[in-house]
Amino acid sequence: MFKLRRFLKNYKLQLTIGPLCKLTEAIFELLIPLITADIIDTGVANKDINYVVRQGLLMLLLGILGLGFALVCQKSASVASQGFGTQIRNAMFSHINKLSYNELDKIGTPSLITRMTNDIDRLQLAVAMLIRLVIRAPFLVVGAIIMAVSIDMKMSVIFISASALIALVLFLIMYKSVPFFKKIQKMLDNVSLTSRENLSGNRVIRAFSKQESDGERFNGKNDELANAAVTVGKISALLNPVTYVIVQAAIIAIVWFGACFVDSGELLTGKIIALVNYMTQILLAMIVVSNLVVIFTKAFASAARVNEVFDTKPTVVEKSECNVETDENAPAVEFRNVSFGYADNGYSLKNISFKIERGSTVGIIGGTGAGKSTLVNLIPRFYDAVKGEVFVGGNNVKEYSFHRLRKKMGIVQQNAVLFSGTIKDNLLWGKKNAADNEITKALKISQSYEFVSRMPQKTNTIVTAGGRNLSGGQRQRLTIARALISEPDILILDDSSSALDYATDAALRKALKEETRNMTVITVSQRVAAIRYADKILVLDNGELVGSGSHNELLDNCPIYREICLSQLKEEEIKNK
User: Fold this and answer.
1) Phi and psi of 24, rounded to 5°?
2) Burial environment of residue 269 by CB neighbours within 10 A (0 to 12, 13 to 18, 19 or more)
């Protein structure tokens, strides 16, 4: 929690004024029982109506002033807590965008969403309570005991004893319940993960008629969370009745012994009323303290989760912008003895070396899990090689800034992701000031122009989140158009035509070859037909480069490539003519 105090530096005024105003209100509240006692012992006892009215007006004035101070405190708490939460969310969102795929995979999207919403909400509440109640509640307890001592030393023993018992009850209940709050946060992550999987994979769930079993899985996670919440709720539920019993017993003791002191003339009736009021104030303040313990326990658990994100350092670090000169004679892409592995999973790529010349078309093929996507993800530095070096334009990719490196590339990944907005909005991600003719050209090359032109709103057609109102093939073609519109030096197509029929795929490859002559095109595919006419084909198997060359060359000298070809084509079809 203390690590996050830097986000409060702009709210020093609110952090000062708010507690002071609440403290002043608490002082007024402590004066009220004394004025009440004075009214009873002086005004009522002497039947002095004017005195009663004057003191009553004084109580009203204190109440109005207290309300004013409370409103100022509330305003300060709202400004500080909401500003604090907003700054943390902005900082966390910015930090998450600096993390590499490694860190994002490790923490997980559902957990990051929970931390940016639920956890930060709890931190905001803690800041608001810090300003409003952290000083007020303990001050009321201590102040009420001091006031009781000032009224009568012997009666104050009841106050001190009751306060000690209430504090003991608070400690025992908090000791039992605090561990549950930490577990509940982790359970929330599990519920969030299950919900996200259910909603994003709803079509698959329905296709396999798994609604019932998936519902049971969700209910299981939800019930686990509910049971933990109910358990801690049962423990916390003991707080109010136990403290009320202690306080009511204390009030009975005050009235009992106070009556004896009144009979003996040692105390006045008004003082007994004041002591009862102070006991009630202690009860209410102690309950507030218990709630604060719960709030801050949750906040500390949430702060640890938020700090975990901030403490996570990106393994792929951007180098400051420098004058990197591109060597026009160097290969567009070069791998030198590159090895890469995900955490605790061994090497996914092993000692890979190859060159891709400028303007050439390169295909990458291999079985599932061979490392094809991993390989192309090293080019734009989504991951960094564990061993070896990756070069773009004759320079190590680590020498470029992220913006400059990725500006050279148009990347179409396996999952065709579109964002809510219009088709044009999505295409302009590639080039925000693209002219209409550039958009049309990109649509034609990607084989999107035909279906887009049939839509009533053309490129102004609304795309729902994730492009759910479009077919898989349409989404893939639009993501290819988005990459093409920026006219990148290197176009990376990571299995991005898997949803296209063979005729559309062939037309796409033909258009790419004719319209992108100066562009280096890297195509990852499971289909031999998609890469057989490439200038060079790289064959991966179990993370190793087992073949490199043209289609015909690989048929003769790469058994794995020949096996892949025979699994998809007839013997008489596999030779290029």
Assistant:
1) -60, -40
2) middle
Spatial separation of the C-alpha atoms in residues 390 and 334, rounded to whole Å: 6
Report the distance separating Cα 150 and Cα 160, nearest Å. Answer: 13
Torsion sign across C-alpha atoms 40, 43, 49, 51:
negative
pTM over 0.85: no
Question: Residue 564: CB partners within 8 Å, gap ≥ 6?
Answer: 365, 366, 367, 528, 539
Query: What class has domain 2-311?
Result: mainly alpha
Q: What is the pLDDT of residues 448-477, one digit of tens each?
A: 888 888 888 888 888 887 777 888 888 888
Distance between CA atoms of residues 517 and 506, nearest Å: 17
The domain locations on the chain are 2-311, 418-487
How far is residue 82's CA from residue 89's CA, in Å, rounded to a whole number? 11
Residues in the chain, total: 577
> What b-and-e string marks burial along 157-169, b requiring 16 or more CB atoms within 10 Å of the CB?
ebbeebbebbeeb
Burial grade of 51 (CB within 10 A; 0-12, 13-18, 19 or more): middle
Cβ-contact 528, 565 below 8 angstroms = yes
State the CB neighbour count (10 A cutoff) for residue 142. 14
Phi, psi of 336 (to 5 degrees): -120, 105
Cα–Cα dist 496/573, whole Å: 24
Q: What is the pLDDT of residues 171-219, one digit of tens each?
A: 887 777 777 776 776 777 777 777 767 766 676 777 777 777 777 777 7
Determine how β-strand 333-340 pairs with β-strand 349-356.
Answer: antiparallel
Write the CA distances from 160 to 81, 154, 247, 284, 292, integer angstroms.
Answer: 35, 11, 11, 15, 21
* Domain 418-487, CATH: 3.40.50.300
